[in-house]
């Protein structure tokens, strides 16, 4: 009888761990992955919001740890890339990007 009670407790602990994983751990890992993807996709001209609530436009980002953000005319801040909470709007395209084909370009 004692082994049945111990087995029941072990199954209860396993079930609790599964519930915690599905409700807490897995969604948090998904959010962290999406955040890393958004940070990696930042480029010059994007409007971003830092963790402290500062809104500015990205002036320089080379894929490293720091981003230079312009918050007012001639006022630039260096912020750690991981502290960027949100990317509000996308800026100008990358200069080296190949332009998409359009019917107007095909006529040339």
């Amino acid at each position: 009888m004692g082994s049945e009670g111990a087995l029941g407790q072990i199954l209860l602990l396993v079930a609790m761990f599964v519930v915690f994983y599905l409700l807490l751990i897995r969604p948090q890992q998904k959010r962290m992955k999406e955040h890393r993807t958004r940070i990696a996709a930042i480029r010059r001209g994007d409007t971003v919001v830092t963790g402290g609530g500062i809104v500015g436009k990205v002036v320089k980002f080379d894929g490293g740890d720091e981003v230079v953000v312009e918050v007012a005319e001639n006022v630039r801040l260096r912020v750690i890339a991981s502290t960027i909470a949100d990317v509000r709007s996308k800026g100008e395209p990358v200069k080296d990007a190949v332009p998409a084909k359009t019917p107007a370009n095909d006529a040339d």
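Helices lie at 2-40, 103-106. The chain has two helices and five strands.
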